[in-house]
Amino acid sequence: MKQLKQVHGQAITCGLGDNHYALSRLIAFCSQPHHHDSLPHGLNILQHVQEPSNCLYNTMIKACLLRNELNMSFQLYKRLLENGMYPDNYTLPYILKACAYMESFRLGELVHAHCLQLGFIFDSFVGNTLMMMYSLFGNMESARYVFDEMPTHCVVSWTVLISGYAKIGNIELARIAFDEAPIKDRGIWGSIISGYVQNNCFKEGLQMFRLMQSTSIIPDEAIFVSILGACAHLGTLEIGIWIHKRIDAIKLRPSVKLATALMDMYCKCGKLDVAHKLFDEMPERDTICWNVMISGLAIHGEGLRALKLFSQMEMTKIQPDDVTFIAIFTACSYSGMEHEGLKFFNKMCKEYNINPKTEHYICIIDLLARAGLFNEAKDIINKIPDSCSPKEVAVAWRAFLSACESHKEIEFAKMAAERLMELENDSGVYVIMSNLYSSTNDVDSLQKTRKMMRARGVDKVPGCSSIEVGGVVNEFVAGEKTNYKIEEIHEVLENMNRQMY
């Protein structure tokens, strides 16, 4: 800032004090987030210009947008209009973005009306930003209206439309829009692939990635991150390894985000050693990266290693977040370290000032119940804030009930089952109680439970499993014969039975 002011002074002495281009570069410098206390200086410059141009206003509005000074963006927009000036196709997108970031749907509609009044609805830059704003509000009906009003559609228009539909969970309309797009660039392919993955359609995401491989398009980092997420959820290690080799083949240097996605895939596919090697090789790490590695160790029962890694994280001065502590509680729960878990719970609240969320309560309840500390677990459930939804509270009671089944604690299980039935009509409650009564030879209670299930028309949700063979994920649903090789599988099983007996 000291040097900027010197340059500004020199510009004035050279006769460039009112040169709009020179002033716009000075204001642009002030917009950078890492230049502290520079925004007031930029506003001061603009205030002293006798006849500011649209360019100067646009630069200052953009500066406020980048610095998250959203109200100031609107004040400048208002000042521009009061000076008898008209916004252009740079001003309006900045203001529309400010509406989206402020989550002000009403303001967005008012600016949309201004766009219509000034005839900018036919400008692709303004139109695309309008679509983006409406999609961020989840209003795809209005976004589609803007799209249909635009005389021409560029690849950005199609990408925003596809991503918007995917964001609200309407992956069918997203796919229709993808199929209708006349030109499919990397952004459009990336939007449909990430859309499938975000909506838990992991196999479909992999299929789209394979289709993209038949084109000349080279995947970018965002596509690789999405598809690695699909591999992690499906447990498709072979495909994940192939993607890792593909990243190396195209000489794409993994960023923190991409390296974290690779780690997550290897962790969830059971390759902790490979994940830890990637973690150790990373030149820089963020909180998410540490969380993934701690969580990977936790879910594989490596509780002590997870806690040791957390200590290293604290030593590096990386600030843990609420997700970090979920991983820590999981590590304690899976490794039978209930007392350590309670200590970390207190540490999270008192030392790091993180307010517990439902997920934290659920982890602690699971931790205590697994250790047989049912009274303590029940007390924690009763401390869950009233602001939590019934669905979230039900998850806590379900974790408690599951532990009761494992420990054959019938009285606590009955209490948990009653609370769950009040909160939701879930067949899982009846199934757990039925299994519990069956294991304790409580025939009367077992018959009553099954009779209640029939009376309420409750059906057990069929189990589902998947296995990767030769790079192909095969899915099996209990009681169904949907797998195309089911007859062949049955023949093999029958042969095995004959040989065993």
Automatic annotation (TrEMBL):
<dbReference type="Pfam" id="PF20431">
    <property type="entry name" value="E_motif"/>
</dbReference>
<dbReference type="InterPro" id="IPR011990">
    <property type="entry name" value="TPR-like_helical_dom_sf"/>
</dbReference>
<dbReference type="GO" id="GO:0009451">
    <property type="term" value="P:RNA modification"/>
</dbReference>
<dbReference type="GO" id="GO:0003723">
    <property type="term" value="F:RNA binding"/>
</dbReference>
<keyword id="KW-0677">Repeat</keyword>
<dbReference type="Pfam" id="PF01535">
    <property type="entry name" value="PPR"/>
</dbReference>
<dbReference type="InterPro" id="IPR002885">
    <property type="entry name" value="PPR_rpt"/>
</dbReference>
<feature type="repeat" description="PPR">
    <location>
        <begin position="185"/>
        <end position="219"/>
    </location>
</feature>
<feature type="repeat" description="PPR">
    <location>
        <begin position="255"/>
        <end position="285"/>
    </location>
</feature>
<dbReference type="Pfam" id="PF13041">
    <property type="entry name" value="PPR_2"/>
</dbReference>
<dbReference type="InterPro" id="IPR046960">
    <property type="entry name" value="PPR_At4g14850-like_plant"/>
</dbReference>
<feature type="repeat" description="PPR">
    <location>
        <begin position="286"/>
        <end position="320"/>
    </location>
</feature>
<dbReference type="InterPro" id="IPR046848">
    <property type="entry name" value="E_motif"/>
</dbReference>
<feature type="repeat" description="PPR">
    <location>
        <begin position="53"/>
        <end position="87"/>
    </location>
</feature>
<protein>
    <recommendedName>
        <fullName>Pentatricopeptide repeat-containing protein</fullName>
    </recommendedName>
</protein>
